[in-house]
Amino acid sequence: MRKLAGTYGGVVLSMILWSFSFIWFKIANETYLPLAIVFIRLAISVFLLTAYMLLTGNVTKMKKQDRKLFFLMALCEPFLYFIGESFGLTYVSATAGSVLISTIPVFVILGAWIFFGEKLRIINYAGIILSFTGVLIFIINKDGTLSFSIRGILLLSFAVASAVGYNLMLSRLVGSYSPVFIVNVQNTIGALLFLPVFLVSDFRQFINTPFSVRSFVPIIELSVFASCAAFILFAYSVRKIGISRANVFTNCVPILTATFSFMLLGDKLTFQNIAGMFIVITGLFMSQINGRQKKTDTALVLTGKTA
Q1: From CA 221, how far away is CA 224, in angstroms rounded?
Q2: Strand ranges for 66-125 from DSSP E
Q3: What is the spatial distance between Cα 25 and Cα 82, in angstroms, rounded to a whole number?
Q4: For residue 300, what pLDDT band results from cuts at 50, 70 and 90?
Q5: Which helix (H) or strand (E) holds 83?
Q6: Comparing C-alpha atoms, which of 300, 243, 280 is closest to residue 118?
Q7: CB 110 within 8 A of CB 277
Q8: Do residues 283 and 131 make contact, with C-beta atoms less than 8 angstroms apart?
Q9: How confident is the model at residue 232 (pLDDT cuts 50, 70, 90)?
Q10: DSSP state of 224
Q11: C-alpha to C-alpha distance for 281 and 126, rounded to whole angstroms
Q12: What are 85-110's pLDDT values in tens digits?
């Protein structure tokens, strides 16, 4: 009983940490530009995950034939994914960002159906439609105007599309490598891809900006807690209670983000926003009911969370 409580405690804590990641980014973005935040976050997470792997003996040699897949996977996420998410969050609230990002599983299910021919049940189709309806309710006002910046919505939609591409690549690797190894490799490649972009675009602003403890500490928190601790806790929970039961908890991230954003950032939601958010989450639950194969489920666990 104590072990089970510890397992569920671990998965709940990982959800809380991932919920805070949207808030930490918003605070860091008050001083630092998005690419600087992303590059530093990835660099620190690579250092920590490499140390963790060496200490636990979880070191694996990459197969030569998988190098191309690893590169394409990392290109989709974290590189393209973080470009969309980070710049998108500069235009919308943390809660809006978490709601839009939470639709990733729906699009991954559609991608698996289109590209892998995975069969879906009627309830899965209904959940997909319901999630899309919830998003529309969340972002569109009664008069037909958008509640949030169209630029932010488009950038976050780009992040979701990148995550789908990531999942399709990842589904071919999860059976051969441990989750921690995959995350560390993709973050390493991602950091290398971001390095020249960061040096050209944000480096000058970063070194010329007076150091801000309030804005830099959240970058450390993103690296240590969101990119490392939350993932390790979640991966541990998946091994103990299974993918399906653990993945259900991820649908609660938008609710937690909305709660913490209200408490810490002063974000406010209308009744319509709240209704849309709960419709999205209900649709997510329905879309994942017995409609996924085990291998792709394992890939879905990592999508949108690992970097």
Answers
A1: 5
A2: none
A3: 11
A4: low
A5: helix 81-89
A6: 300
A7: no
A8: yes
A9: confident
A10: I
A11: 13
A12: 999 999 999 999 999 999 988 888 78
pLDDT band at 24 (very low <50, low <70, confident <90, very high): very high
Asked if residue 245 lies in contact with residue 301, where contact means CB atoms within 8 angstroms, the answer is no
- Best CA proximity match to 88, nearest among 304, 306, 285, 264: 304
Residue type, 255: I
Rounded distance between C-alpha atoms, residue 233 and residue 7, angstroms: 8
pTM beyond 0.85, yes or no? yes
SS3 146: strand
54 close to 225: Cβ distance less than 8 angstroms: no
Specify whether the CB–CB gap between 109 and 287 falls below 8 A: yes
- Report d(CA 156, CA 223) in Å as an integer: 21
pLDDT in tens, 119-157: 788 898 898 899 999 999 999 988 788 889 999 999 999
β-partners of residue 146 are 140
Buried b (16+ CB within 10 A) or exposed e, 109-131: bbbbbeeeebebeebbbebbebb
Mean pLDDT, the chain, integer? 88
Cα–Cα nearest to 87, from 40, 43, 139, 35: 35
Q: Which residues pair with 66 in a beta bridge?
A: none
Six-digit token string for 300:
């879905």
Question: Do residues 74 and 193 make contact, with C-beta atoms less than 8 angstroms apart?
Answer: yes
Q: Please say whether the dihedral angle defined by the alpha carbons of residues 116, 120, 124 and 130, taken in this order, is positive or negative.
A: positive
Q: Give the orientation angle of helix 294-302 with respect to helix 150-170, to 10 degrees.
A: 140
Is the Cβ–Cβ distance between 167 and 306 less than 8 Å? no
Distance CA 148, CA 145 (A): 9
- Per-residue CA distances from 279 to 89, 118, 228, 241, 296 (Å): 22, 25, 30, 26, 25
